Amino acid sequence: MRGSDFKKGKGLPAIVALATPPGAGALAVVRVSGEGTHQIACEIFRAARPFEQISPRSAVFGKILREDRSVLDEVVLTRYDAPSSYTGEDMVEVSCHGGVLITEAILGLVLRKGARLAEPGEFTLRAFLNGKMDLTQAEAVMDMIHAKTPLALRAAAEQLEGRIGRETLEIRGRILEIAAHLEAWIDFPEEEIDPATGVALAGKIRDSLDVVEKLLSTAGQGKILREGIRLAICGCPNAGKSSLLNRLLGYERAIVSEVPGTTRDTIEEFASLRGVPFRLTDTAGLREGEDAIEKEGIGRAKKAIEAADVVLEVVDASTGERGEILRCERPHLVAWNKGDIVSEERKKTVVAGDGLEVFISCKTGEGIPGLVDALVEAAGARPADGSVSFAAINARHQACLNRARASLLRAIGSLESGEEPALVSIELREAVEAVGEVAGEIDGEEILGKIFASFCVGK
Ligand SMILES: Nc1nc2c(ncn2[C@@H]2O[C@H](COP(=O)(O)OP(=O)(O)O)[C@@H](O)[C@H]2O)c(=O)[nH]1
Ligand SMILES: [Mg+2]
To answer: How many domains does the chain have?
Structure first.
């Protein structure tokens, strides 16, 4: 985003970007949006009908011509007229053949005609500035693109539909109303707030606080859906940690060997377990390291264990040997491995039965589904009532709502201790501002620029 472009409304200069990933493919899409887009299209596109006669929101087959009128590519061009487009501006989308040179040549041509390269997230920023979507919906676009599991995708789709934005704007409206009510007194300083009204106002603030807290309670879900649960697989050398990683992934990612100390570095891989995103880390077995590299690997293993949301200890049930595990507050599961080579009798004596210990065999697959259930449960990926909350806030929303919560609590405190209405009103105004920021009531291009800069180019 360029500072000078940052004016709410129409008339921002044309930007162009490749909307599809770079590289060879059947098709690629080049997107152009902003002032002058249709003029550029008139100059570079030739079809059976002139560009001016193409109706909005229709796709037309034609040719992209270089300045010397030679044919660059045969394409399908879709025309959009403001405000009925993704950005709310005049736009065209060119579906060309997906070659690196072709897309570069089309981009170059559009740039020479006066557009500039779009910055990351700039199309979506314009959609936001033109009131096509609120900020939570803009963020949902990115969440959808980056969703790694079906659950994450559903949550993003729900957010794209606008639920979080609507809920926060509704609370904002309610707090604003209470503030206005209060400020009516401030204008007549001789009048005191009578206690009954004070209690009623505090009750109303508490109602808003409840909604804020309900939204805040979805933050954990949101973090899981967006970032995944960090699971550290640890235990003694040769317990079967790497075998278990491969089992959970469904392919042979880590080297499995009977030689203890084979895994020297930590290996991190993403897995979708029952639709819940997990970041699995296979670690070096915890023991007194034989050499410098293994020692370094063990150091990394300890760091991975410290950073994990859930710790999974693998124990070789045929030996029962258990090494040093870093005890911590986080859920700790024990998987007794190699169930295929221990007797049923021994299994009975080993499993403590507190629900966090399971018998498995990486060789036969025995017990793996049960382990996966236990992992999903230990991670708290599903709320206790078994439902999955699909409107889960992100870290930015959480920060805004925490500020709002603190202000509302202070407002209630001030009101109950009979302080000046002006003080309560200041707190309420702060809460209004903080809640409003969730959906994008933000002053300042810098903050918006930061939010959109994490998007990808062409979106
Ligand atoms: N019988 C049997 N052997 C296993 C099982 N899981 C792993 N192993 C063997 O145990 C050895 C160590 O496995 P590995 O996954 O490399 O252990 P790590 O050092 O903990 O990563 C290898 O020879 C594996 O084939 C199992 O469930 N049953
Ligand atoms: Mg290993």
So the answer is: 3
